[in-house]
Design brief:
The protein has about 250 residues and is of the alpha/beta class. It has nine helices and nine strands. Strand 4, helix 4 and strand 5 form a beta-alpha-beta unit.
Length: about 250
């Protein structure tokens, strides 16, 4: 497995360097570079467009535009690391996780890079699947956002299903309405799940910060579409990798 790690500043070395070291037992090839999305966008564009491998990990603090910009430049899976520079990493987490539909970044909690390393090891060992299965909390009415996921899956070659329990044959996406809905050790993604009126209340993102700090990988609140798009990137790369190996 070949991974490119890019961080926005050398001041983040206290996060980036332990991450690079922890990736080495899981990945055959790990490249690292510091490139700022704000100060050196042309170099970033050239590097990402020309790089070939399995996935990219991008980390930044404060406004944390880097992971989202990288995801917009590549069809590969992109993992985002919010660096805890201020406010407990709240600003960075929101910048990375709250991406528009179609441009997914799989975000860990602030500085919680072990979640990415664990996921990559699980992805490497997992069987390919075309089923994205949403695990819905008891009593939650998630029909509307599940329908959005189905619409997003139509042209991706994926099937969307849902129930109250994980499906071993599927790529599981956990809707999180309570702390107990988090599955930090499970292979899959988490989507913070709020009623519409609660998602409009800014202070509720502090709850998302707390959830993400407990582990696992995350996309934006109620953004089941980006969960599907992330699964599609993971699936498509696995398919392409299989075709290359067969050839």
């Amino acid at each position: 497995m070949k991974i490119f790690v890019v961080f926005g500043s050398a001041s983040d070395n206290n996060v980036s360097q332990p991450l690079v070291e922890s990736l080495k037992p899981v990945c055959d090839n790990v490249e690292f570079q510091v490139i700022s999305a704000h100060r050196n966008i042309d170099l970033l564009h050239e590097r990402i467009k020309n790089w070939q491998g399995d996935a990219i990990i991008a980390g930044a603090g404060l406004a944390a535009a880097l992971p989202g910009v990288v995801a917009a430049l590549t069809p590969l899976p992109v993992f985002g690391v919010p660096v805890n520079s201020q406010f407990g990493g709240l600003d960075s987490l929101a910048s990375i996780a709250q991406m528009p539909p179609g441009v997914p970044v799989l975000a860990c909690g602030p500085d919680k890079t072990d979640a990415i390393v664990t996921f990559l090891g699980q992805w490497k060992a997992a069987k390919a699947t075309s089923i994205v299965h949403f695990v819905v909390p008891d009593g939650a009415d998630a029909a509307e956002i599940i329908d959005k996921a189905r619409a997003a899956a139509k042209d991706k070659g994926l099937t969307v299903a849902s129930s109250g329990a994980p499906d071993k044959a599927a790529f599981n996406v956990y809707l999180v309405a309570r702390t107990e809905d988090i599955r930090p050790a499970a292979y899959g993604l988490h989507v913070p799940f709020f009623k519409t009126e609660d998602a409009a209340d800014a202070k509720n993102y502090l709850t998302v910060l707390d959830w993400a700090a407990r582990g696992g990988l995350w996309v934006g609140a109620n953004n089941t579409r980006n969960a599907v798009h992330a699964a599609a990137r993971l699936q498509q790369h696995r398919k392409s990798e299989g075709e290359r190996n067969a050839a």
